[in-house]
Amino acid sequence: MSTDARPVIDPLDTSRHDRSGFSCGVEPLDRYLRSQASQDARRRVAAPYVLVEPPASAVLGFYTLSNTSIQAAELPATFVKTLPRYPVLPATLLGRLAVDARQRGRGRGTVLLLDALRRCLRSETASLAVVVDAKDDAAVSFYERHDFLRLPDQPHRLFMPMTEIAQLFG
Fold first, then answer.
1. What does the alpha-carbon distance between residue 98 and residue 104 come to, in Å, rounded to a whole number?
2. Domains, the chain, ordered by start
3. Is 32 assigned a catalytic role?
4. Where are the transmembrane segments (predicted)?
5. Distant-in-sequence, close-in-space partners of 39: CB < 8 Å, separation ≥ 6
6. For the segment 59-76, what is each residue's pLDDT rounded down to a tens digit?
7. How far apart are CA 126 and CA 113, in angstroms?
8. Opening angle at CA 48, ends 23 and 2, nearest 5
9. Would you call 66 helix, strand, or coil by DSSP?
10. DSSP, residue by residue, 84-130
């Protein structure tokens, strides 16, 4: 009998998920998970999802999703020309994504990102793209490796069109 359980990603549940030992090395992200994520979920400001490896309940990584909008003028001209001429367009914000430092190098970030993109694609709410605000150049590189595109004039804001996400999951 194998004791190796597959990691699962679930909506944050403070009664089941232990956030106390989580440390990604970025204090604002660690603090957010420990003290604000559950409030954001309760207030419906953001939807936090956590990666755990059953039967353990320790959080290995997390991300948040929320609705946002993007100015059409912020998008690349080649992308906008195929869209309706609305000045503001609906999008989904991948607001935070972090992996516990002890889990780095195991593909956990990619697992979290793909789960987030799949949830966005399945959503019944209209969304043109998934948008991220990368914290630093390393985060920009992570998202670019996963085919996110930079917004002109905003080097740390990237997006992936829903059409690309749909192709990704075929």
1. 10
2. 8-169 (3.40.630.30)
3. no
4. none
5. 45
6. 999 999 999 999 999 999
7. 19
8. 70
9. strand
10. ---SEEEEEEEEEEEE-GGGTTSSHHHHHHHHHHHHHHH-SS--SEE
- Cα 120 to its chain centre, rounded Å, is 9
Helices vs. strands in the chain: H and E counts, helices first: 6, 7
Please tell me the distance from the alpha carbon of residue 112 to that of residue 45, in angstroms, as a whole number.
Answer: 20
DSSP annotation of 6 = P
Tens-place pLDDT, residues 77-134: 889 888 988 999 999 999 999 999 999 999 999 999 999 999 999 999 999 999 999 9
What does 118-143 look like in DSSP terms, one character per residue?
Answer: HHHHH-SS--SEEEEE-SSHHHHHHH
Torsional class of 140: left (φ above 0), alpha (ψ -120 to 50), beta (otherwise): alpha
Q: Rounded to whole angstroms, how far apart are CA atoms 71 and 152?
A: 12
Classify 41 as helix, strand or coil.
helix
Closest by CA position to 63, among listed 141, 118, 16: 118
Q: Which of 32, 49, 63, 143 is catalytic?
A: 143
Nearest 5°: the CA angle 30, 33, 38 is: 160
pLDDT score at 163: 95
